[in-house]
């Protein structure tokens, strides 16, 4: 059960830090503040207090903020202690909290879980909040904010409401089929609205790929035969030495990756072992991993050595990902230049590098509209939305007199979307029916 224990945790980051924030939530919050900060401070006002353990030993001086429930993050009585961020200070305060009856250290995500159970946040908002904390690039931040602020939940709730409404109409028809007040068959208005919901969900799902790329980053895999310049390219892009560059073929045995921030998008670039036959086991493992990396790539850079007299035919990666062909070591060959098919680059002179980044950029989502960040951010959302689409479509295809089956399909559709936000709504059918029809007449 939720809310019986009072939980606490260090909510700010690593120690030492200038200020550390300890969060407390639960029914024991008030008593804790009375014991440790010499009385309950006025609600929502940062108040300077001496912080003491239960025996009265002075631990630190800091700001105490009390958020009485339910108007708090978790919905419970909550408090924050802003103390000095020294390791020993934080440890002493945490120990003092742990020694109070009914208090225990919070588990991972427990504050958010309480917020969800108390109806303060839905699942999409909680996911967004987690993404805000994890966001490393500008686009990740904006995507996370859109979800945390409830913009996407509003969409989902709107669809659930309309599906529930349509179902209520059909069920009303079932229950009162003999009465005269109820309009006939799955009405034209309802059909039209269900089609509109389908269009809106499909449109929303079109942003799924963008959402995934923004959140998880674009995975770019560099492939090509040994010694073609893969590691050199990775190092050039990273502008730091992360992979071993040597003249001996087959030195890159592990995949080494760097994360780039390209125009606010996270782009992960993977270097792979050269794909070729080898008897050496360790290298074979590297090659196996390289193949897996290519199979999971969003974009492949297939490198070919411009310095080779006979340009070796690169075994073209046959994954689903688009491929950019790159000819390396352009500095060694005066006459090699880029074509639309293959881009000539040199890690020695930097030639072709801006063009390469531009060609990678072309695979990033184009976000122009204001609603660009109101896209699904997780496969969980996509799956549920596809389930809903399927179920609505089913309801529309059913024969007009199959009211019960229609209602059941719409119930499944609304249920699928309700599960995205974690607020499956089953109780308000009758309210809707009563508000739309004069049933009591
Ligand atoms: P990998 O096996 O594909 O990872 O290739 P490396 O990055 O280890 O490079 C193999 C060799 O080619 C090294 O000696 C590099 O210095 C050299 N090399 C890489 N890129 C270039 C380039 O643009 N120009 C020239 N001249 N040499 C390069
Ligand atoms: Zn290498």
Automatic annotation (TrEMBL):
Residues where K(+) binds: 227, 246, 248, 251
Cofactor(s) essential for the protein: K(+)
Signal peptide boundaries: none
Gene3D superfamilies tied to this protein: P-loop containing nucleotide triphosphate hydrolases, Probable tRNA modification gtpase trme, domain 1, tRNA modification GTPase MnmE domain 2
Compartments, as annotated in UniProt: Cytoplasm
Subcellular location, principal: cytoplasm
Residues that bind Mg(2+): 231, 252
Record-linked Pfam families: MMR_HSR1, MnmE_helical, TrmE_N
TrmE-type G domain ranges (all copies): 217-365
Keyword Hydrolase: yes
GO terms for MF: GTP binding; GTPase activity; metal ion binding
SUPFAM superfamilies with a match to the protein in the record: P-loop containing nucleoside triphosphate hydrolases, TrmE connector domain
InterPro entries cross-referenced by the UniProt entry: G_TrmE, GTP-bd, GTP-bd_TrmE_N, GTPase_MnmE, MnmE_dom2, MnmE_helical, P-loop_NTPase, Small_GTP-bd
Residues annotated for GTP binding in this entry: 227-232, 246-252, 271-274
Positions annotated to bind (6S)-5-formyl-5,6,7,8-tetrahydrofolate: 23, 80, 120, 441
A GO term from the CC aspect: cytoplasm
EC number: 3.6.-.-
Note on cofactor: Binds 1 potassium ion per subunit.
Quaternary structure, from the entry: Homodimer. Heterotetramer of two MnmE and two MnmG subunits.
Similarity field: Belongs to the TRAFAC class TrmE-Era-EngA-EngB-Septin-like GTPase superfamily. TrmE GTPase family.
Function, as annotated: Exhibits a very high intrinsic GTPase hydrolysis rate. Involved in the addition of a carboxymethylaminomethyl (cmnm) group at the wobble position (U34) of certain tRNAs, forming tRNA-cmnm(5)s(2)U34.
Protein name in the entry: tRNA modification GTPase MnmE
